[in-house]
Amino acid sequence: FLSFQYNSSFFRSVLGLMKKENDTKVTEFVLLGLSSSWELQLFLFLIFLLFYVAIVLGNLLIVVIVQADAHLLQSPMYYFLGHLSFIDLCLSCVTVPKMLGDFLQQSKTVGFLGCLAQIYFLHFLGASEMFLLTVMAYDRYVAICNPLHYLTVMNRQLCLQLVFACWCGGFIHSITQVILVIQLPFCGPNELDNFYCDVPQVIKLACMDTYVVEVLMVSNSGLLSLVCFLVLLFSYAVILITLRTRFRQGRSKALSTCASHLTVVSLIFVPCVFIYLRPFCSFSVDKIFSVFYTVITPMLNPLIYTLRNADMKKAMKKLRKKHVATCCPFEG
To answer: Membrane-spanning residues where (predicted)?
Structure first.
């Protein structure tokens, strides 16, 4: 009887602990954001609102120009550029609207499912963009190193297949990241030291040893960023070596195009390599690199590709004249 009574007490204690653990399961995360000062948050709200408007208008303009101009749409480079702008437009919508809303309130929270959704779309679009930039480097390599066969090699069917492969690669990468996170138990602290949900910060809140998970994160996100970055650097190194034997006029135009691409590549890959290739530790500058990756780069891409590109400027002028002629048919 004493043994039965002892076992009953033991099971009641275990059930009580299990109930307590279920009661303390994390259902939402608190985002610490970029600042805790109300005045600074209002100032940041205005700054990032201007950034977001520039992102939407700039990338939307490129998408519209590429779709409206038949010559640009038939060019593989501008076909890929249109997809790049579309990805930047979507990528900014994953984090910036939530951040702008949080600037106007003291409590910054995100539900568990909302956090998973943010991780999924962030990595889906981010990885797709990395693969697309690698494809764009291959396109420039063929155009500069094998110009006579460029249109034959980079035909429309191959371009469609490459873009589809980029989206598929992004999906596989992002779903792997979500699987890593969704299997973790969260029962303790729920404060994320960032303005959006991402894998490095979330897995540190798990109620278990996350050594294996962090190694998997590095092998998935960190190595992916590093390998793509090294492939890009190698391809552009080959292009620059090839350009040494080209005529002055063609060389300057190709160098201008490569400089634009390398600028975009650096702005995207350097923050990603810094954030995802070093597990088990975090630095105060992580938020700055996160801002560059999610806000600054999508805003600068349209400026880099339009201000330094004569074809885009010509297409913009043609579209503006067409718009004026449509709106004011009897003018002049």
So the answer is: 42-66, 78-97, 117-138, 158-182, 223-243, 255-276, 288-307
Residue 324 lies in a domain: no
Give the domain extent around 242: 25-313
Tell which residue, 85, 89, 90, has the closest CA to residue 62: 85
Domain of 76, CATH number, reads: 1.20.1070.10
> Which of 135, 178, 140, 189 is CA-nearest to residue 160?
135
Q: Tell me if 71 is assigned to some domain.
A: yes
Distance CA 90, CA 124 (A): 11
133 with 84: CB under 8 angstroms? yes
Inter-CA distances, 5 with 18, 23, 197, 282, Å: 20, 27, 47, 50
Q: Which two tokens stand for residue 277?
A: 């290739």
**Element holding 284 (H helix, E strand):** none
Q: Kindly give the confidence (pLDDT) of every residue in the chain, 332 residues in length, as a single tens digit, with 9 standing for 90 and above.
A: 434 344 444 434 433 434 334 444 778 899 988 887 888 999 999 999 999 999 999 999 889 888 888 788 888 888 999 999 999 999 999 999 999 999 988 888 999 999 999 999 999 999 999 999 999 889 988 888 888 888 888 999 999 999 999 999 999 999 998 998 998 888 878 888 888 998 888 888 888 888 888 888 888 888 888 888 888 888 888 887 777 766 555 566 667 767 777 877 888 888 888 888 876 677 777 888 888 888 988 888 888 877 667 777 777 777 777 666 665 554 44
Q: What is the pTM for the complete model shown?
A: 0.84
Long-range contact pairs involving 207-210 (C-beta distance under 8 Å, separation at least 24)? 208/184, 210/184
Query: Helix/strand/coil (H, E, C) string of 190-219?
Result: CEECCCCCCHHHHHCCCCCCCHHHHHHHHH
CA contacts within 13 A on the Cβ side of 196: 29
* Number of domains the chain is built from: 1
Q: Quick check: is 238 in a domain?
A: yes
